[in-house]
Amino acid sequence: MDPLLLIPGPSPVVPRILQALGRPTISHTSAGLAADFREALDFLKTCVFTTAGEPFLFAGSGTLAMEVALLNVAGKNDRILVLSQGYFGDRMAAIAEAFGLACDVIRSPWGRAVGAAELRTALDSRRYEVVSVTHVDTGTGAAAPIRAYADALAGRDLIWIVDGVCATGGLEERMDDWGIDVILTAAQKCFGAPPGLAVDIFSPRAMTKRRSLASVPAYYSDILRWLPIMHDPRKYFSTHAVNEIRAFAEAARIMAADGMPERLHRQELLARAVRAGFLSLGFGLFTEEEFLAPTLSVVRYPEGIDDAAFRAKYLEAGYAVAGGLGETAGRVFRMGHMGNLTPEEVLGAVRGLGETLNALGLKSDTEAAVSAANAVFKG
Ligand code: PMP
Questions:
Q1: What average pLDDT score do residues 41-52 get?
Q2: pLDDT of residue 2
């Protein structure tokens, strides 16, 4: 039996989506694929509450989506401001550096995010053409205060990129209302689809910025090459990941049927339930309360528990979680709870945590933990 995948992405892929993935490979320019493609693109707009945005979906991972976002809005003389609350903000700065773009970074301590006041100060002190923020950092579990950022950025003549790889579809992102210019994400997290697809959604202002650039240092990643295909998926630019797109369309159907308000609500509930369970077992949270993201938990061990031994035992119990990154390595494990995870699976995971602690010789009350988690679902 494969373990239940509770790493912070990829998320578990439910059988209905796997069946769509396993359907025959059809032509990348067929009417059949175009229909699935359109459904997926329409849902992406619903997902981020935009009517005016242009969604792009192509083979690649979240890192490609980051590169696409940046290269298509940053001119070679532009200055970029990156707000980094951890691992993936730093990656955006590294991408800027790789392309020789001038970039300043404001870093928060891990477990927190940069405040909107710091953003205002930076914007008042220097001209930036692009600001990039990570909505949820998957290394630290911290969500950035993007509504406050929206206020700080309102009325400024710049392009605002949001990395939503660990957020889009699980946390509210109101692209039109909040004035976000590019949202980038990937299939394998809150959508619960298999890895392999990158997503970028561009606002009209971001499209105008792209058109104002004579060229971009990219070929595959140039959104103007993809635009005709997104408007008519029967046209050819580059061969689509046909099966992944069919699977993603199925994931989009599941989410559309639930509706975004329900998805966002359920995401909150899953997080509160699993946290009630593991806190009752004596685990702690690494991320500061005010920044806690609902899509993953960065979990501190109780005294005396060894990281590698714990994760190996928990895996034997049927649950895969990830280790800590950077400064948290060995001190925490990271658990994703995104996508189509069910309350039953969350309760099972909490039970598994209790049993794993017991197997490692720590006396813990598994039933009390499961009850604490269940109480959240029962409201
Ligand atoms: N940004 C964030 C916030 C992420 O969590 C990740 C992946 N965990 C990425 C970017 C990069 O995505 P990928 O691994 O799909 O390239």
A1: 98
A2: 94
- CATH annotation of 15-258: 3.40.640.10
Looking up tokens 């004596």 gives 282
- What pLDDT score does 267 carry? 98
Q: How far is the CA of 63 from the centre of ligand 1 (A)?
A: 6
Ligand 1 within 6 A of 65 CB? no
For the chain, give every residue range classified as CATH 3.40.640.10. 15-258
**CATH homologous superfamily for the domain 259-378:** Aspartate Aminotransferase, domain 1 (3.90.1150.10)
Q: Which amino acid is at 18?
A: L
Please indicate whether residue 165, judged by its CB atom, sits closer than 6 Å to ligand 1: yes
Distance 319 CA to ligand 1 centre (A): 21
- Name the average pLDDT for the chain: 97
Cα 189 to ligand 1 centroid, rounded to whole Å = 9
* C-alpha 199 to ligand 1 mean position (Å): 12
Give burial (CB, 10 Å; 0-12/13-18/19+) of 155. exposed
pTM of model > 0.90 = yes
Look up residue 108 and give its DSSP letter.
P
Q: Residue 24 has what DSSP assignment?
A: P
